[in-house]
Amino acid sequence: MVINIMKSHASVRDYQEKQLSREEVSELIEAAQHAASSHFVQAYSIVWVTDPEKRKKLGELSSNPQQMEGAGAVFLMCADYNRLKHASEMQGEPIVFDQAENLIVAVTDVGLLAQNLALAAESKGYGICYIGGVRNNLEAISELVGLPEGVFPVYGLTVGVPNEANEVKPRLPVEAILHENDYDEAKYETLLPEYDKTISTYYQNRSSNQKVSTWTQQMAHFLKKPHRQDIREFLVKKGFLFK
């Protein structure tokens, strides 16, 4: 069942050498395209990086050399208003995509596309991993693959035959994210300590990379300082002005 595949997801960072064929990639992308899209704009593009030198450079720029060089397929999942600009020009109309709303639409479209692609890949027995590290060097990566105005990478996505079988990391309980009629933050006082115990047990007992940590500790450490502060300036250069 699809639900079982979804609930068994675990990131894969070590792949066998097998490369995905063009037919396999096309099948996965076609399935991914059937994700919902706001106003049917389909504001996304995928750059399939097959050139070994570009893969190597992409691995360096994203701080993920093992994945980028070892995966069966490497994709850059991009927000894209350039194609929509061409579509509008065909109709003799100017395009406006510099508003914050347009940015939200494109990032949402990419997220839905990527998750469909991940689910399609996992249904075929492949493993996947999202690579947020591509946002470490957005300018250089955009130049590496020739992204024009209106197009930027949101994250990478690697796909391949797993060399490892990671345990599924426990998610927050449904009660922590599901609010009925009104947002209820009072329940966090009970639910978050309970979840910390669950995560702590998972980290200490998983088959590799054991550690002593809780979810709230990790989040507090991660969110106590800003990250990737150059992103807004980069997006402005790409035409997203946050109007």
Automatic annotation (TrEMBL):
Family per record: Belongs to the flavin oxidoreductase frp family.
One Pfam family this sequence matches: Nitroreductase
UniProt KW keywords: Flavoprotein, FMN, NADP, Oxidoreductase
Stretches assigned to the Nitroreductase domain: 7-160
Annotated InterPro entries: Flavin_OxRdtase_Frp, Nitroreductase, Nitroreductase-like
Organism whose genome encodes this protein: Planococcus shixiaomingii
Official protein name in the record: Oxygen-insensitive NADPH nitroreductase
NCBIfam families, A to Z: PRK10765.1
